[in-house]
Write a structure and sequence with these properties.
Layout (H helix, E strand, L loop, with lengths): L1 H18 L3 H76 L5 H22 L9 H31 L8 H15 L7 H10 L10
């Protein structure tokens, strides 16, 4: 098809050259035709380059999606562990508030929880920004990690201090113990782990044009 067009165009130029009364008109016509051809070729090249860039961008976004998804899945496991520890802590303390006598099992539960909390604290402080992420995503993940580390430090400090207060070697009075632990919770407990803004920003940036938000 392309060859047919070229042959037809050549035949048309030859015919024009023979039958046009003024050769200058023919030269102007050829120059105009050549200019149109050059402009069309340039536009097509720009369009092709644009399509290549767009495909490259989409492929990069998909790679970033994969890296973030794998990191976030592991991170979410740590967060679930932190939530379970915190719920268990409040369950133990809630039982202590309603107890009529001091029970050694309360201290033992807090001691076991302390071990688990310290282990999870190490895990959180071992978190790193995954390799291969672009700078804008890496900066947001680093902020998430810093917030999570501050949270786990406060949570662990609360659990450890409560276990020390409940040590039977120093126990004197159940009401006093409850007051001490209440003060510890007020003073040391983490305010909360607020990372929704960073996570939402990452997911918004990881949207492939024409697709939904990365989950």
């Amino acid at each position: 098809m392309v060859y047919l067009i070229l042959v037809s165009a050549a035949a048309a130029l030859i015919a024009l050259y023979k039958f046009l009364p003024n050769r200058r008109i023919f030269i102007y016509f050829c120059a105009t035709l050549w200019l149109v051809f050059c402009i069309s070729a340039f536009i097509q090249m720009q369009r092709n380059e644009s399509e290549v860039v767009s495909r490259a961008q989409i492929e990069d976004i998909r790679r970033q999606q994969q890296i973030f998804s794998e990191w976030y899945a592991d991170y979410q496991k740590d967060i679930d562990h932190l939530d379970r520890n915190w719920q268990l802590f409040h369950s133990i303390i809630g039982h202590l508030k309603t107890a009529e006598i001091y029970e050694l099992s309360t201290y033992e539960q807090l001691a076991e929880l302390e071990i688990d909390a310290l282990d999870e604290q190490k895990n959180i402080h071992a978190l790193k920004v995954p390799k291969g992420l672009n700078a804008e995503y890496a900066a947001l993940i680093l902020e998430i990690i810093k917030k999570t580390q501050a949270y786990v430090d406060a949570q662990t400090k609360t659990i450890v201090a409560s276990r020390l207060a409940a040590d039977p070697a120093y126990f004197t009075d159940l009401k006093l113990l409850n007051r001490i632990i209440k003060d510890i919770i007020i003073r040391e407990s983490p305010a909360g782990l607020f990372t929704a803004t960073e996570i939402a920003a990452i997911r918004e940036m990881l949207v492939v044009p024409g697709e939904g938000v990365e989950q």
